[in-house]
Amino acid sequence: MKLLSVVFHHYRWPFLGVLLLSAVSAGLGIGVIAFINQRLIESSVDSLAALPQFIGLVLVLLVISIAAQLSLTVLGHHFVYQLRGRLIKRILDTDIERLERLGSAHLLASLTSDVRNVTIAFVRLPELVQGGVLTAASITYLLWLSPKMLLVTALWIVVTMAVGWWLVSKVYQHLHRMRDAEDRLYEDFEAVIDGRKELALNRDRARRIFNERYDVDARTYRHHIIRADTFHLTANNWTNIMMLGAIGVAFFLANGLGWATTSVAATYALTILFLRTPLIQAVGALPTLLAAQVAFDKLEALTLADYRPDFDLEHAEFTGWQTLELRGVTYRYAEQSGVEGFDVGPIDLRLERGELVFLIGGNGSGKSTLARLLTGLYIPLTGEILIDGQALSASQWQSYRQRFAAVFTDFYLFDRLMGPSGEPADTVFVEQWLKRLGMVTKLQLEQDRIINPQLSQGQRKRVALLLAVAEQRDILLLDEWAADQDPVFRRIFYRELLPQLRAQGKTIFAITHDDHYFEHADRLLKMSGGQLCELTGHERELATCDVVRQVE
Q: Which among 322, 328, 280 is positioned nearest to 134, based on CA atoms?
């Protein structure tokens, strides 16, 4: 099983140490049975003299057993901790395109359900390991007592375990299908939560999303989890009852066929009773391990970036840049679910340090894609990005991205202000911008932490802009930032804030539809059908006069 091989790869010596403890525990368990057989059943000597030794042996067995199981449990939790951390880091390192194709519902399911299932498996793993080790030790002891009886008893147990394994394999199949249904349920939850306002207004849509999506997926999930539990419980009960039957078989072989003495039969029965609970626990733990393997397969199927412990925190490169150029850059959205793909480019764009550039264009024209290409979030299909005439190499992408701060249309509002290179934001700088943004009385800060994020959308965008400018990056990208601002503050934004940022040496690339303020830009660019052009002269005058459609 790949999951266990990964654990062994990362924790080889601790894992071997735990197996050794388990082997010692199993040996002591068989030793207790042998002691009972030799000193308390067969021996004619006063059993009272053997009692202290028996109690001491039991106490040592208790300590070793607890140590073995606790060690394996702690090891498992360390592995899950690292697994979760590596998964988060891989998500942080994965290209935006891949994350967007996966979708947030899929990622959330992996971070919650899949990691939880792996955790549960490691909680139950000691039972599986103990059961396996005890079975091996018990078979060795029974072989020493009576090989003939072991042959029949072992055949009985093998049949028992084979049927149990078949039942457990059915559990695995249904767990796999249940996990797929769980992915769809997360998508349904996301639709209900994110679309709550629209669903409140349209009860027909709410009814259809409940009946035709959620209920169908929930029924599928219920079906497979009931089937999984049914096979699991059947496997447990089958193993339990058949192990009791093995005791009857042992006495029949000893007394009925004369293969062994009654004391040997009693020892067989005692060993089987001793083995019965660990075997049942092992069978019970196996589905959790199988569920963890399904979860682990799901995590592997994400095909995220390879794990790297570092964050590429190199901020010094490109600090003195003067020109940024996109040369022959293209990007393509592949066809999905019958929807035709979309091509952007080839794009040729040159930005000078300190410029204020506006980008206009209709919906679906490629503006946001150009923004992602410009910031390095999307890797061009063809073409190259050059800084001061030098093309970026693959190793320079992270450094290049560090030149940008951005407020996208689908921005996330973080709760902490950060200055350059991750240092705390300058207090004076923050106070100045709070005044400029009209947020002195609106935003509550506790040191560098925002403690009242429940603001209107326009105010949230102002805070997002504050977070972006506090980082003091060279280039500021704003994707339709002013769309949610009132007319008064929109005027302040274009006539005061953007000129102030440009005066500070910032390069500003703003996607906008506010034609009344086009005159404030140094340059006016336009995207149409995935192609970029610059509007100059009469075309720019027409765009500024709110007749953009005349130049389409």
A: 280
281-282-288-291 Cα dihedral, nearest 10 degrees: -150
Q: Which domain holds residue 531?
A: 323-403+473-551
The C-alpha atoms of residue 163 and residue 161 are separated, in whole angstroms, by 5
Give which of 401, 378, 373 is closest to 313, Cα–Cα: 401
- Is 244 found in the same domain as 119? yes
The 10s digit of each residue's pLDDT in 238-275 is 877 887 787 788 778 777 777 777 777 777 777 777 77
- What Cα–Cα distance (Å) separates residue 508 from each residue in 238, 327, 393? 71, 20, 24
- Total domain count, the chain: 2
Q: Which residues pair with 524 in a beta bridge?
A: 358, 535
3-21 pLDDT per residue, tens: 666 666 666 677 677 667 7
- Express each pLDDT in 444-491 by its tens digit: 877 777 787 778 888 888 888 888 888 888 899 998 888 888 888 888
Partners of 476 in the beta sheet? 405, 508
151 φ/ψ sector (left φ>0, alpha ψ -120 to 50, else beta): alpha
CA distances in angstroms from 498 to 1, 211, 310, 349, listed in the order given: 58, 49, 35, 21
DSSP 128-156: HHHHHHHHHHHHHHHHHH-HHHHHHHHHH
Residue written as tokens 């202290």? 52
Amino acid at 516: H
Does residue 214 sit in the same domain as residue 117?
Answer: yes
**Best CA proximity match to 392, nearest among 332, 327, 331:** 327
Please give the C-alpha separations between residue 6 and each of 69, 72, 293, 296, 464, in angstroms, as whole numbers: 20, 15, 11, 10, 41
List pLDDT tens digits, range 74-83: 777 777 777 7
207 part of a folded domain? yes
Helices (H), 94-114: 96-102, 104-109
Write the CATH number for 104.
Answer: 1.20.1560.10
The verdict on 233 and 88 lying in the same domain is yes
Q: Is the peptide bond before 346 cis (omega within 30 degrees of 0)?
A: yes
Read off the pLDDT of residues 29-81 as tens digits, 9 standing for 90 and up. 767 766 766 666 655 556 566 677 777 777 877 777 777 767 767 777 777 77
> Do 280 and 166 reside in the same domain of the chain?
yes
- Write the CA distances from 364 to 5, 98, 375, integer angstroms: 47, 20, 19
416 and 443 Cβ atoms separated by less than 8 Å = no
